[in-house]
Design a protein that fits this description.
Layout: H1 4-7, H2 31-42, E1 49-53, H3 60-73, E2 81-85, H4 92-102, H5 112-119, E3 126-130, H6 141-151, E4 156-161, E5 170-174, H7 180-190, H8 196-207, H9 215-224, H10 230-238, E6 244-251, E7 255-259
Parallel strand pairs: 1-4, 1-5, 2-3, 3-4
Antiparallel strand pairs: 6-7
Helix pairs in contact: 4-6, 7-8, 7-9, 8-10
């Protein structure tokens, strides 16, 4: 996705309410994931759906937003880049309404598939469906998956999900866990005052053993640490297991453990 032509291309507008490039700065690791996913996305054939699969908090949403910014900067998808959060969707009718809105057909009186067959403008569109796993527990999941497959005939479709989709034309990408080096870099980008001893304890006892190098868990933890209070941090990190509070399902993929800092600060 490089080259002189892309540098001077007119940027494709992003959906301002859901994708803000400023929120995606300081992206750590994942350069190989970005490249592989972009290649798979641009290589999708008509009717294919690319699913980014991974545990909760691993960074699926973050990486697809980063990809949206990258393709927008290169002027790709002249028909628009669209981001749909599936979590608030409660049935197939609402899912179809959201999908139809991408083509300006949310209020169309005729069948939208017939309209697209007869009047599709031929412009390339990217549609990102985030948190698709929430739809797999609905009674109408089969209808929703059928709609998704039809949409892929008229746009490139990128899905984030904790499960692999059982649909025709599916293309899967398994998100890997961060390496401990990447997790440490992420942690220390937010906590810059850790000592050498604390960094060693961080690697040996916390990042992988307790947090599975999960980006969301690291973000939650570092957002609650008081800045500059190294002695208190040293005491805390040395007694980390004592301050674990069991909260089942708080961060999927990590187990029933989450840090609770308010109890000690």
């Amino acid at each position: 996705m490089t080259g002189e032509n892309s540098i001077h291309a007119k940027k494709t507008p992003l959906p301002e309410s859901s994708i803000n490039p400023k929120d995606l700065k300081g992206f750590i690791g994942r350069s190989d994931d970005l490249e592989h996913i972009c290649r798979k996305l641009m290589g999708l054939e008509q009717g294919e759906v690319l699913t980014i699969k991974g545990a909760g908090g691993i960074g699926k949403t973050h990486i697809v937003k980063k990809i949206a910014v990258a393709v927008a900067e290169r002027g790709l998808f002249s028909g628009g880049i669209h981001f749909i959060d599936c979590e608030p969707i409660t049935d197939s009718r609402l899912f179809l309404f959201k999908a139809a809105a991408v083509f300006g057909l949310e209020h169309a009186e005729e069948d939208i598939w017939q309209h697209l067959r007869d009047h599709h403008d031929g412009q390339e569109r990217l549609i990102i469906f985030d948190n698709f796993e929430t739809l797999l527990y609905l009674n109408e999941q089969e209808e929703i998956k059928a709609i998704l497959s039809k949409i892929a005939d008229y746009a490139k479709v990128l899905v984030t999900c904790r499960e692999l989709l059982k649909i025709e034309g599916k293309v899967d990408y398994q998100m890997r866990q961060l390496t401990t080096d990447e997790a440490e870099t992420l942690f220390l980008s937010k906590v810059t005052w850790a000592t050498k001893q604390e960094k060693e304890l961080l690697r040996q006892e916390i990042l992988d053993p307790l947090l599975n190098n999960n980006p969301l868990a690291i973000t939650l933890i570092t957002s609650d640490l008081p800045k500059g209070r190294a002695l208190l941090w040293e005491f805390f990190i040395s007694n980390s297991r004592f301050f674990l509070c069991c909260v089942a399902g708080t961060i999927p993929g990590i187990g029933p453990q989450i840090w609770v800092f308010q109890t000690i600060f």
